[in-house]
Amino acid sequence: MLKVEHLSVSFGGIQAVRDVTFSVPDGEIVTLIGANGAGKSTTLRTIIGIQKPKSGSVKFHDEELVGLPINEIVRRGITLVPEGRHVFPDMTVQENLKIGAYMRKDSLTDDLHWVYDLFPRLKERSWQAAGTLSGGEQQMLAVGRALMAKPKVIMMDEPSLGLAPLIVKGIFDIIKEINRQGVTVLLIEQNANMALRTAHMGYVLETGRITMSGPGKELLVNEEVKKAYLG
Amino acid sequence: MSVAYFLQQLLNGLSLGGAYALIAIGYTMVYGILRMINFAHGDVFMMSAYFAIYAVAVMPWYVALPVVVISTIILGVVIERVAYKPLRAAPRMSVMISAIGVAYLLENLANYLFTAMPKSYPQIDILKRVYSFADGAVTVSRVTLLAPILTIILAVALVQLINHTKLGMAMRACAKDQDTARIMGIQVDTIVTMTFIIGCGLAAIGSILYFTDRSTVQPYSGSLPGLKCFVAAVLGGIGSIPGAVIGGFIVGICQIAITAAGYSVFSDAFTFVLLIIILLARPSGLLGEKATDKV
């Protein structure tokens, strides 16, 4: 269980996250939805340790993560697929996957097979420079790279951003598939419709605060959510 | 111009170029990771020569040379920690100014510690053994022959390290996108330190090769060669290690060629004219990186 409690984060004079509390139970998909600037990315960046919180705590299996360096947090089994994919464009697909496993010292062979099974397209292109992949393929690579760390929790920041609807559907299928294989998922999305359909639990973030929460399917039919996010 | 004379000068040029190449690698690697020109690099190279004078005086050469390399590395890492690391979040220009400050600091420190009088560089017999060819028309010391060969070996080893090891992969990742590298669990500060270790280690070897053939050191011995190696790195395409090696050889050979042709007064000017020409005609250098980003 990943537990975020009373988390407040501010930077540049702006309080981006205010007293946010939520939890991600093991084996589930949890989504934070909200508009641009609602504090979703900041929340993920604080969990992974890029951003330091002003107050509050982030506990993973009852162990405090706030104050730990990023590499320690990654070592404990939490990874982030950053917004905008950020694959290493000059490196090959295979190297990008290997760098995802940077903290590991054991053999990567099995996991490379696992990721290539999930994303056959990446296998076809394993020797190609990542910068030459299409947007959808780069997103697959970014997810595959995060999976190479053998995470317990994978956090994804807007994985559907800028992708064609058909490819978005593919990405969400993969999210369900990796969750089925036992990886906990914390997903943030502007595509509220897809995210809520996929997630067990959803939280709505508005200007840094959680304003609503509930099982994904319930939020999907909630009038306020419908009006604000499902148009 | 006789063939022997040509051969002699070519060997001298290759030797100088080899030393330049090793120093240029330091500029290019630091630029690759921190996007800043480490203007103190030439002065680290000069300090390394003083370390050699004192080390060789008190211990046998085979102990002294590794000691020189290690102490140069320590100096470089300390400079990075004290003068560059605190400015990691500052604009790049601030770090560059800090580097210029360190350059003057080292020159003045050398002036104070070792005086401005040129000191003679230790003559290590095993490096200075002279070979002569063609009835003495071509004479070269062992270090002259060794410099280009050693440079190529070290450069090839370094490229292998960068392309085929985990450390090298982390260095490439940090050079491209530090924030994402951090998310992978890479500790960027450690990688920066490794970069300085490699760069300064090579500068120390370059210093041994360069000064053994030149016999004296004074506190400003590093500034002009440092700038020339910076030009070499720009010529090769800053950020590219093979580029730095090629640039180093070109600058070294041209300098010797101009001197040999009797225009030694212009040899320094030539290097900087070259810099202006590259910046005007091909700012990315011979092997400079091209953007392949696609979003």
The gist of it:
With 231 residues, chain A is of the alpha/beta class. Chain A has helices at residues 40-48, 70-75, 93-100, 109-118, 120-124, 135-147, 165-180, 192-198, 216-221, 223-230; strands at 2-11, 14-24, 29-33, 55-60, 63-64, 78-81, 153-157, 184-189, 201-206, 209-215.
Distance between the termini of chain A: 33 Å
How would you name the CATH homologous superfamily of the largest domain in chain A?
A: P-loop containing nucleotide triphosphate hydrolases
Class by alpha and beta content of chain B: mainly alpha
User: Which protein chains are joined by the largest interface, and how many residues does each one contribute?
Assistant: A-B, 32 and 20 residues
Tell me, rounded to a whole number, the average pLDDT of chain A. 93
Q: What's the overall geometry of chain A? A: globular
Major sheet: arrangement of strands of chain A: 6-7-8-3-9-10
CATH architecture of the largest domain in chain A: 3-Layer(aba) Sandwich
Spatial ordering of strands, largest sheet of chain B: 1-4
> pLDDT under 50 segments of chain A (min length 5)?
none
CA radius of gyration of chain B: 19 Å
Number of helix segments of chain B? 12
Question: Helix amount of chain A, in percent?
Answer: 25-40%
Features:
heterodimer; A: 231 residues; alpha/beta; Rossmann fold; six-stranded mixed β-sheet; four-stranded antiparallel β-sheet; 27% strand; globular; B: 295 residues; mainly alpha; ABC transporter involved in vitamin B12 uptake, BtuC; two-stranded antiparallel sheet; 4 strands
Description of the molecule:
The complex is a heterodimer of chains A (231) and B (295). By secondary structure, chain A is of the alpha/beta class. Chain A is 38% helix and 27% strand. Chain A folds into two domains: 2-77 and 151-230, Rossmann fold (3-Layer(aba) Sandwich), CATH 3.40.50.300; 89-150, no CATH class. In chain A, strand 4 (55-60) and strand 5 (63-64) form a beta hairpin. The two termini of chain A are 33 Å apart. The mean pLDDT of chain A is 93. Chain B has a single domain, classed as ABC transporter involved in vitamin B12 uptake, BtuC (Orthogonal Bundle), CATH 1.10.3470. Chain B has 295 residues and is mainly alpha-helical. Chains A and B meet through helix 2, helix 3 and helix 6 of A and helix 7 and helix 8 of B.
